[in-house]
């Protein structure tokens, strides 16, 4: 409907009329299970798991396994992200088990507890860009993308503020999910170290680095840059002011669709693969709302 | 959590050390440095020596709270 109205007409609409149009578009894309988003984590996890026996038995070269594993890690977060927003199924729905299974498995690849990611991410949505309450805010500062890289590296330093950002949010919330998340995180880290040590003890440290450790490090840097820094840096608070669009080298695909992140913040229950289409349809409304669209 | 505080030491000794040894024996880096993996270094094999280096790194990381 917004396509039939000129930008001038849209700019003359009231807040509630614009909201009505925006929700009308969003409704078209949400509340339906996205099959590609179901197949994505299953295929991604199976491919990544298959790399281990293939490399260990010498069937697949390490040089070929590394870029595949890197790709697996780069795309592992988004299905977990959809699960964090209950996009596969809400509590009480028949496919709720699928939502939780995808969330846990995708997060494990990234050596994160799904519960930790969900609780902290929902806090990010509730308090976007709030220096006190948004666990991601401290990663979204600086004048260039180099800050994002620097803060990602900082988050690996055990005593740094960046490393403790999520822990502080979990301690502040202190609900059952947070407590279980912290416990899960402990065992996930132990499991990863156990696997890395076992590989190294058997003369396969290089394989472990190429399939898991190094792709994971690169993936965290990529994820923090495109899913956190680029859409939020330099912005304040407020529904239409806390997230922006941007131009990405390689377009929406290279940024994992994060050029449309602004629509994700407005309507997080739209499955990830449908968000770019919703973004394109909402563009005239977003312009009328004076959202920073980064040249779109 | 004592276990978590000791993680950098375990990581250095049991992963980083063997990894460096593998880098020196299984990649072209070994040829550049002309290292003979069978040769003892201060009475240790190359892997044991690298594990010792990894442990030292881990202790520094654990004490300072910084991996890098």
Secondary structure elements and their pairing?
The complex is a heterodimer of chains A (296) and B (68).
Chain A (H helix, E strand, L loop, with lengths): L6 H5 L3 H15 L5 H22 L5 H13 L2 H8 L11 H14 L4 H13 L18 H10 L6 H13 L2 H26 L3 H28 L18 H4 L6 H6 L8 H14 L8
Helix pairs in contact in A: 2-14, 3-4, 3-6, 4-11, 5-6, 5-7, 7-9, 7-10, 8-11, 9-10, 10-11
Chain B lengths: L1 H4 L1 H20 L1 H6 L12 H19 L4
Report on this model:
The complex is a heterodimer of chains A (296) and B (68). Chain A has helices at 7-11, 15-29, 35-56, 62-74, 77-84, 96-109, 114-126, 145-154, 161-173, 176-201, 205-232, 251-254, 261-266, 275-288. The model of chain A has no long low-confidence stretch (mean pLDDT 93). With 296 residues, chain A is mainly alpha-helical. The longest helix of chain A is centred in the C-terminal third of the chain and has 28 residues, at 205-232. Chain A has two domains: 1-30 and 238-296, no CATH class; 34-235, no CATH class. Chain A has 14 helices and no strands. Chain B has one domain. Chain B is mainly α and 68 residues long. In chain B, helix 2 (7-26) packs antiparallel against helix 4 (46-64). Chain B starts with a helix and ends with a helix. Chain B contains four helices and no strands. Chain B is elongated, with a radius of gyration of 13 Å. Chain B has helices at 2-5, 7-26, 28-33, 46-64. The longest helix of chain B is centred in the first third of the chain and has 20 residues, at 7-26. Chains A and B meet through helix 10 and helix 11 of A and helix 2 of B.
